[in-house]
């Protein structure tokens, strides 16, 4: 049995995971790199974005239907890799510039926003009350001895 706070956290996690599907834009970036329009330095962050897209779908299902240690651990790994990807975006933008598909945008705004949300969800995974929702910890009351 989950509490309202745990349910809200699971719903928020599912929504944030669903929003990761927008990172499919990395496919366009990879094609741009192959065509010579953007630096090869963008290939690694683009592949990590594709990892985020592929990993989001089973994690949405797992958060909804199969909470437990493996789901919790997979989310810890997922958010950590996502944060590493955003750090890669910062470094690549700083040293080689934004990719051509980001023309006219602030190249730091999206990664900064995503990093903040990823960090929030990662930290919340370690809050005892929210973590317990994954492990389905329940106490069974035993009747007093007569």
Q: Judging from the principal axes of the Cα atoms, what is the shape?
A: elongated
Helix and strand composition category: mainly alpha
Number of strands: 0
Helical content (DSSP H or I, runs of 4+): 55-70%
Mean pLDDT: 92
What is the beta-strand fraction?
under 5%
Order of helices and strands, N to C? HHHHHH
Give the end-to-end Cα distance, rounded to a whole number of Å.
Answer: 30 Å
Radius of gyration: 19 Å
Could you characterize the architecture of this molecule?
The chain has helices at 4-19, 25-34, 43-65, 69-96, 109-124, 128-135. By secondary structure, the chain is mainly alpha-helical. The longest helix has 28 residues, at 69-96. 23% of the residues are buried. The model has no long low-confidence stretch (mean pLDDT 92).
TL;DR?
The chain is an all-alpha fold and about 150 residues long.
Topology:
Blueprint: H1 4-19, H2 25-34, H3 43-65, H4 69-96, H5 109-124, H6 128-135
Provide keyphrases for this structure.
146 residues, mainly alpha, 6 helices, 0% strand
């Amino acid at each position: 049995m989950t509490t309202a706070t745990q349910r809200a956290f699971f719903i928020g996690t599912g929504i944030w995971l669903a929003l990761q599907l927008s990172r499919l834009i990395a496919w366009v970036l990879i094609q741009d790199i192959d065509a010579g329009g953007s630096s090869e330095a963008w290939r690694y962050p683009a592949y990590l974005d594709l990892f985020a897209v592929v990993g989001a779908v089973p994690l949405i299902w797992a958060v909804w239907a199969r909470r437990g240690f493996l789901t919790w651990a997979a989310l810890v790994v997922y958010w950590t890799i996502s944060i590493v990807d955003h750090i890669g975006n910062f470094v690549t933008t700083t040293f080689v510039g934004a990719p051509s598909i980001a023309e006219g945008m602030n190249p730091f705004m999206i990664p900064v926003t995503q990093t903040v949300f990823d960090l929030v969800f990662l930290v919340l995974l370690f809050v005892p009350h929210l973590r317990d929702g994954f492990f389905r910890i329940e106490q069974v009351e035993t009747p007093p001895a007569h």
